[in-house]
Design a protein that fits this description.
The chain has 524 residues and is of the alpha+beta class. It is built from 18 helices and 24 strands. Strands 12, 15, 18, 20, 23 and 24 form a six-stranded antiparallel sheet that branches. Strands 3-2-1-4-5 form a five-stranded parallel sheet, with helices on both faces. It is globular and about 55 Å long.
Amino acid sequence: MACAAYSFRGHLKLAGGHGLYALANNHLSSSLKPSVSYPSSRQWSNISSNAARHTACHSHLIVGNSERWRSSLKASLEDGTIVAEGRITVLVIGGGGREHALCFALNRSPSCEAVLCAPGNVGIAQSGDAVCISDLDISNSDAVISFCHKRGVGMVVIGPEGPLVAGLTNDLVKAGIPTFGPSSEAAALEGSKDFMKKLCDKYNIPTAQYHTFTDPAKAKQYVQDQGAPIVVKADGLAAGKGVVVAMTLDEAFEAIDSMLVEESFGPAGSRIIIEEYLEGEEASFFALVDGEKALPLESAQDHKRVGDGDVGPNTGGMGAYSPAPIVTEVLKHTIMETIIIPTVKGMAAEGCKFVGVLYAGLMIEKKSGLPKLIEYNVRFGDPECQVLMMRLESDLAQVLLSACKGELGKVSLTWSPEIAMVVVMASEGYPGSYKKGTVIKNIDRAEQVSPAVKIFHAGTALDGDGNLVAVGGRVLGVTAMGKDIEEARSRAYDAVDVVDWPEGFFRRDIGWRALKQEQTANYR
């Protein structure tokens, strides 16, 4: 299949005769059964934990829970784990809600000396979760490498898919800088749905039946033969908007014309995937990968449709919660055995080992109860990253550095047993056109609703008068923890209601599936 030779402008050619990359049995066992402990509920602090650690060096003061995290981490690491001898400076690439959440978690990491974020955003900077480097050109690999050398950066964590597909990881690794994120060749798992589907075919990874087209007439004939509902996808990166779930033939024809004739998504839509409509419940599954081994993260479930009741067009995500009740321990094992591990082995066998986070968008089929792969992303999801980072108790910097070094087999993860939920506040009109520069007030008051509330900034800036304004479609991720889904949901919406932003909107039903399942269980 030859990952390295794959071109986004050409068709993938499948080469035969490659053997599966064999994972050692002990690696497989450790990846399927991570050590998990259940520490007490955490309380959030708006004080920078790195600054707090420096203050605590000369006293017995404990700010937030950094000492508990430190001891919790030591307790959760197995014998033989390499523990960082010195703290490192981490550079996070990106400037959205996902990157804010990563900075938030890295800033709590005992092994992290400082967190830098390029370009970052005003919310990240004001929160103290990282120092933002707004003038660093992240599209220029030489500039990023030079910056890393000057600032003594010990690891780069790449958030968005764009720099990954463009090859930033390739250049950083070549320069000797540990980088968490796949090479451009491995990033084809997200950069081309055709590539991902062909990998699934070759390595027997369960996914929806499909065909690939560049000719609109042939695509329409296939749809006519298959009938509706059916799914039409742009092959390339389309900012989460290149998927149309067509409930009628006319909707499918319109999507085909939009992508192949009108070129609505540019080169990303010059090739399309048409696949069968799967009925069931969607779930997001994440695993850290070091090229050979995979370590599952906790589950999450997002809400893609823009409106309450899961209606309207797809978005990048209007909210999420973790864990997802539908992903049981048995199902997690099945996902690892049938989807994640075959993908890791397949990519290695094709000559492009994957290092980073695999984000599998899954459909748990209604008729079989088994998972099928809908798509892969090669970075943390947004807004799923926000709820995962809220629940993570481990030292994120140490874990990601272990992945960069191929040492995930020596690491285990610790998670809070609590539920985390994020409600996305978006600009009115999203995912279509929206007005920029609308003023947002009361953010600080909203975060003070509960110590368990944290607001992650995705699309904010300061105007000339110093007002916080919206400059994106999805703007804020109002996130909360709770002992159960009801408490987390109540805290999140209580905080949302305090935010003063007339030009913003949000869904009122985030978490409804988990809430329904919890209520059903309680009734029984």
